[in-house]
Specification:
eight-stranded mixed sheet, Rossmann fold, about 15% strand, about 325 residues, globular, alpha/beta, 8 strands
Length: about 325
């Protein structure tokens, strides 16, 4: 067997292991979040009933099986206009469902917003071609359908925010930063937790990509849906290649206000990338809140006070930027 072939096999095995870690870490984080809710977080959930709103499920926005969304509609349908909050589900781009976020979607609806959970085609055995890029494009395609469906049901949308966790946070930022200029209604803000925002090997120390450029190139090719080679790293060509899948590379002085939370011990996605994003937002004068949880990993599970602070800032920004 040739030396190059052996090297390729080793790199492929390493990337496969990274993907497995992606999924396992996500599932662990979700189990932690579901099994325990701190007293500080009780105020961010509601006892759902017809007195709060109604939900329309499995509405379609495209021809692919995953192209469905749920719409949460506040009981008060008398306003001339409403704000829409889209919350995108987590799952390492390979799993998860819009129903995973029903609690926060119900809470958002209780605050008077039309809230939408949107599914997108996951990267799995049936869809090996799916990537951050293709998923972000599906989200972009879905928004006009979500807004039109709300209008048909008597809720005129004139502003919106995007949000999510992990993979959903990544996709929410891409829409808010990359696609805001073509959105059917103005994007006013974004909020997210632990979403990967960039693809620089030196940031992805959690997978050893800072020491293995070939493995980084292979993994980033999978994630971005583009052919990445190790030789591209550090070049303007590389930034242009991955830009459509990297929220960081769209930051400018017109970027929408953002609230974000990251765990300093995250082993699932690079904490260092969030430092880079915070710096870019600061340098461009973008109003934002960057909340670091110093004792937490991807699940943000060990800093209850700071996680509650994140949610308080979310509500503060919603009140400020999504008001009528």
């Amino acid at each position: 067997m040739r030396k190059g072939t052996k090297k390729g096999m080793k790199t492929g095995a390493f990337v496969f292991l990274c993907i497995v870690v992606f999924i396992v870490t996500f599932v662990t984080s979700i189990v932690i979040k579901i099994s325990y809710k701190s007293p500080e977080m009780q105020q961010y959930s509601v006892q759902w009933s017809d007195e709060i709103g109604t939900v329309r499920t499995d509405l379609t926005y495209g021809e692919k099986p995953a192209n469905e969304f749920d719409l949460y509609l506040p009981v008060d349908d008398s306003k001339e206009s409403y704000g829409l909050v889209v919350y995108l589900h987590a799952g390492g781009f390979t799993s998860g469902d819009k129903t995973d976020d029903k609690e926060i979607l119900q809470w958002l609806c209780s605050k008077g917003y039309v809230a939408a959970g949107i599914n997108y085609t996951l990267r799995d055995d049936a869809h090996p071609e799916a990537s951050v890029l293709s998923q972000s494009n599906e989200i972009k395609e879905s928004i006009p359908f979500v807004i039109e469906e709300a209008r048909k049901l008597g809720y005129n949308i004139d502003r919106m925010a995007t949000a999510g966790g992990s993979a959903g946070g990544c996709l929410a930022l891409i829409y808010a930063y990359r696609d805001a200029s073509s959105s059917p209604v103005p994007v006013m803000m974004a909020f997210e937790g632990v979403g990967p925002t960039s693809f620089y090997p030196e940031d992805w120390k959690c997978y050893g990509f800072d020491q293995n450029a070939e493995a980084a190139a292979e993994m980033f090719s999978v994630m971005t849906g583009k052919e990445v080679t190790a030789e591209m790293f550090g070049t303007a060509e590389y930034d242009e290649l991955v830009k459509d899948a990297s929220a960081l590379l769209w930051v400018n002085e017109d970027t929408v206000p953002t609230v974000m939370a990251y765990g300093q011990h995250d082993k699932f996605q690079p904490y260092e990338g969030s430092v880079r994003l915070d710096k870019a937002l600061t340098e461009n004068g973008v109003p934002h809140e960057y909340i670091v949880l110093p004792h937490s990993g991807h699940g943000l599970q060990n800093d209850n006070r700071l996680y509650a602070e994140y949610m308080a800032k979310v509500e503060e920004y919603l009140n400020k930027y999504m008001s009528e």
